[in-house]
């Protein structure tokens, strides 16, 4: 089942990456059309977002969670519940994909009302999310049983990380489930006429920001528990890992309004509160940067590196046997820029320069399509090879793929950063207007940035192809040995025992308190303000759905 | 580097990152108070306005009501003198839109049900472009407008022309009320669909390669059964169906005939 949960989204990912490539070509003005091969630009963009950012990540996180729980806790799981979760996630994904491919859910992955998707899209999303919750609930009995049998022992760091990821996921998906089940599905089915748009948007972003930490935390688990060992050293501080994971449980959610800085209907006081909390959520990233650098230094020195920078030369950058290092390391390098641009987006005043420009996709591609994506595909390949007992094929291709991806994404996002700082809009088929010399809306000065974007996007596609060749060649290759569940496990260098990070309870209580502080007043304002509701619209008609004429 | 100094460094980096966060917040607060770089905070219960207009309170003080709708801003083209302070109010008539005024810090979301607000001071003469930066449907890529800032002397000599008188033909009223003019222009401007100007009697190429003469029968069929014959164009977009009475369609045909 773990294997299918890795392979199924991988197949979808091919589709998702194809649509990523199409985006950069459309936007660069190489395609001056609204459709290509029967799929509309925005339909492709919806697929790209939903498949790459929601489906692939959720499936991987669940599969990785099973691996961690089985490997570290070494207890049987209730397989009936596991299959139920699996079935819901597959059915949900297929429902949503059918709605998007038939053109009835061109709403992008943020599905902001009053653009309405077919109910199958919303129901599919709910099934996928609830299916992943069930997987998590299934890990709780083994966790508590392990704790009973090991009184006074520290829970393995990887388990803390993956549980933190799913706690963040529960916090995140509860508001979006409320949005979809109570606001959007009744409205999409036609049971209620209008929807409170500001409320729906606030619930969406209550989900939208912790979501990114749900993506990031499984990658952090790999960084803290595998990267030091791959580098030939030890994890610099076990405490730093636990603190980072728990800090993200605490601060990942009360920050969502930083996505809504330029919106009406939310008072600027609450915008500032969320900006403040967002700065606090940057702290675990600094801790991580330091700890990982120190762990790699430890590895470099253990292998004979000398002097201030000598250890840099001893790291296994292109070691074919420790190839996972190249995936994790290149992701980490991209993340430096992704993190720095994130601080800019979230700072109260600077956001008005970059909000909804292509600066934003540049930032989130350097985060989710950098460290998260590379860690996820690297670990997917690792798990497929070890679980089936197969040897990695095309080892040189494999070790270079992440570096090619990193070069591609740096060029791509440089283009998008430059364009975005100049006001180039995101989510726009610019080939139809701003990058079309025939159009009266043509903007000559955006051409250069778009050229960088499409060159980078093409290099990323080549890197993805390299990876897919390795992945499927390995998967369909001959079995070398009996497959087994093996993981790379780093030992801690400093194995501190700080009581504050040994239990989830105080952090959960803190998170609940912060959520009430940060969200109760603005949500109450949004509900009590009595904003006029909005009827549903489709993307291709300026009249509401169901109205065949205006009076 | 020994392990002791690395541990000290670890403590140092925690303090540096905390200090960094505090400095950023301080700068942010400074920018709000000194440079008035704030964020919109408008909270209203009033029903948002549906008509875009520029209201002059004094020669240098204006109130600008922008309506963002699929797929244009109203008003589309306005002129104010340099040195003006403009209070910009923004509402959304249908779905969510965005507004970015290129070359300034003005960046607002237009959310259905709520009015957004920001104040901008225009010091120098210049042509500003504004465009929609949130996905709002098929014509999103075409949703843009202009704002002209001219020097006071030019502005005083040639005040902005009075708004064009709307045609009174009942056919026009039907086209306007049913939002047909969103995609079909009256003055020859290219749009998502073909312009109405000079359309009547013209031969149009269809997507399947055949061609058709635009006459009464074709226009009637196009309104009632838009999926039957699709005119070839860059936007592979199907026209929405509109249920009009036969006499209403006749008025529309009559009006389109006048647009030569």
What labels would you give this structure?
heterodimer, A: 551 residues, mainly alpha, two-stranded antiparallel sheet, two-stranded parallel sheet, 66% helix, globular, B: 260 residues, alpha+beta, five-stranded mixed sheet, 5 helices, 12 strands, 26% strand, elongated
Describe the structure in your own words:
The complex is a heterodimer of chains A (551) and B (260). Chain A is mainly alpha-helical and 551 residues long. Chain A has helices at 2-27, 41-73, 79-101, 119-137, 140-149, 157-189, 197-225, 227-230, 238-251, 268-281, 283-302, 324-346, 351-354, 359-388, 395-421, 447-475, 505-528, and strands spanning 35-36, 39-40, 235-237, 492-494. In chain A, the strands form 2 sheets. Chain A has a two-stranded antiparallel ribbon. A two-stranded parallel ribbon of chain A has the order 3-4. Chain A is globular, with a radius of gyration of 23 Å. In chain A, 58% of the residues are buried. The mean pLDDT of chain A is 90. The longest helix of chain B has 33 residues, at 3-35. The mean pLDDT of chain B is 86. Chains A and B meet through α7, α10, α11 and α13 of A and α1 and β7 of B.
Largest sheet of chain B: 5 strands, mixed
Q: Tell me the span between the first and last alpha carbons of chain B.
A: 84 Å
Give the total of beta strands of chain A. 4
Most extensive interface, chain pair and sizes = A-B, 86 and 79 residues
How many beta-strand segments of chain B? Answer: 12
Catalogue the unreliable spans of chain B: none
The residue fraction in helices of chain B comes out at 25-40%
> What is the CA-CA span between the terminal residues of chain A?
56 Å
Strand content of chain B: 25-35%
Strand percentage of chain A lies at under 5%
Question: Low-confidence parts of chain A lasting 5 or more residues at pLDDT below 50?
Answer: none
Structural class of chain B: alpha+beta
Which outline of chain B best applies?
elongated
Strand adjacency order, main sheet of chain A? 1-2
Radius of gyration of chain B: 26 Å
